[in-house]
TrEMBL record:
The chain crosses the membrane at residues 26-45, 57-76, 82-99, 111-132, 186-207, 238-261, 292-310. It is a multi-pass membrane protein. The lineage of its organism: Bacteria, Pseudomonadati, Pseudomonadota, Alphaproteobacteria, Rhodobacterales. This is Ribose ABC transporter permease. GO terms for molecular function: transmembrane transporter activity. GO terms for cellular component: plasma membrane. Pfam families: BPD_transp_2 (PF02653). It comes from Salipiger pallidus. It is found in: Cell membrane.
Length: 354
């Protein structure tokens, strides 16, 4: 009888420790991956590589933040990569051509106006996803798969598959500062990182401090119960897909600015990296659970892994395989975490009952 009493707290302590390790898996993975490449990848810790890697991480983090809201609400967004490509092409078209209104006249835009228009395009595609899912009852996977093809086709049609080159802008119209978005820096930190900090803080505030954030989690946890509790489920779903489209538009702007060019194939498979970062950061694919901070750390893991593998000369094919394994491992650990969490809850209830 004494042995059983002694083993109970010990087993409970072991289970709790295991649960803590699972919750910290993203940080542990980041430390391990960073340490490995710091040792074995040449010039990995150089200042130039840190700047380049931070820009790559920012691109994935933007998409992953939007994807987190979508997945937490119980959905999925496969269209973000195509939205990136289309929004980059819209920016390139406006920079080079403006809008022709006939009679030899055209409307030209400055940098801020171009960015606003591009963001509205991303939000509009997100609204289309929301409409298909909420009003026409199309499954999120199918709806966003359809808009993936629509957005990619529109990007190709905008230039007949060609690149919009030399997006340097025009000082006369105030668009010559466009390229600074992707290549400029403030206080030694790339502007894209400052943008990520702002978007990340806003997203975290929405998730933790606002009724909308609570509604998003409620819809993902149990949509029917949330609806019966008075949550406007349709509005919540519209918001998460529109926010995801907005984040994708920002990535389209940043990439076209960095490259000083826009290509319709930009953003291909970006949605996979975004999903990987969100899941690795603790977002549950079944909905109702996820953290913006964890997602950003997950984006760092994917970014460090991708850049490190490139620096070590690993084949692009193997990089894809490794990313797939990371996604599967993250989901398996997430499922195990839920089981351990349930066990800890039962043990706590049993101890309270005694």
């Amino acid at each position: 009888m004494t042995d059983m009493t002694a083993s109970g707290p010990a087993q409970s302590g072991t289970t709790s420790a295991l649960l803590m390790l699972m919750k910290a898996r993203t940080f542990i993975a980041l430390i391990l991956v960073f340490t490995y490449f710091a040792i074995f990848a040449p010039n990995f810790l150089s200042a130039a590589n840190m700047v380049i890697m931070s820009k790559h991480v920012a691109l994935n983090a933007f998409l992953a933040i939007g994807m987190t809201f979508v997945i937490v609400s119980g959905g999925i967004d496969l269209s973000v990569g195509s939205i990136v490509g289309l929004c980059g092409m819209v920016a390139g078209f406006l920079l080079l051509n403006g809008i022709d209104i006939g009679l030899g006249w055209s409307i030209q835009f400055n940098t801020l106006e171009i960015c606003l228009i591009v963001c509205l395009v991303g939000i509009a595609i997100g609204a289309l996803n929301g409409f298909l899912i909420t009003k026409l009852n199309v499954a999120p996977f199918i709806a966003t798969l359809g808009t993936l093809y629509i957005a990619r086709g529109a990007a190709l049609l905008s230039s007949e598959g060609e690149t919009f080159p030399n997006l340097t802008g025009n000082a006369e119209y105030g668009s010559d500062t466009y390229r600074m978005i992707g290549s400029g820096s403030l206080l030694g930190v790339p502007i894209s990182i400052w943008m990520l900090i702002v978007v990340g803080l806003v997203a975290a505030y929405i998730a933790k401090r606002t009724p909308l954030g609570r509604f998003i989690y409620a819809v993902g946890g149990n949509e029917r119960a949330a609806g019966l509790s008075g949550v406007k489920v349709t509005r919540v779903k519209f918001f998460v897909y529109m926010f995801s489209g907005f984040c994708a538009a920002l990535v389209g702007i940043i990439i076209s600015s960095q490259l000083v060019a826009a290509h319709p194939a930009t953003g291909d498979t970006f949605e996979l990296n975004a999903i990987a970062a969100a899941v690795l950061g603790g977002t549950s694919m079944s909905g109702g659970r996820g953290r913006i901070g964890g997602t950003i750390v997950g984006a760092f893991v994917i970014g460090v892994l991708s850049d490190g593998l490139v620096m070590m000369g690993v084949s692009a094919f193997w990089q894809t395989v490794i990313k797939g394994l990371v996604i599967v491992a993250a989901v398996v650990i997430d499922q195990a975490q839920q089981k351990v969490q349930a066990r800890v809850t039962l043990q706590s209830q049993a101890m309270v009952g005694k």
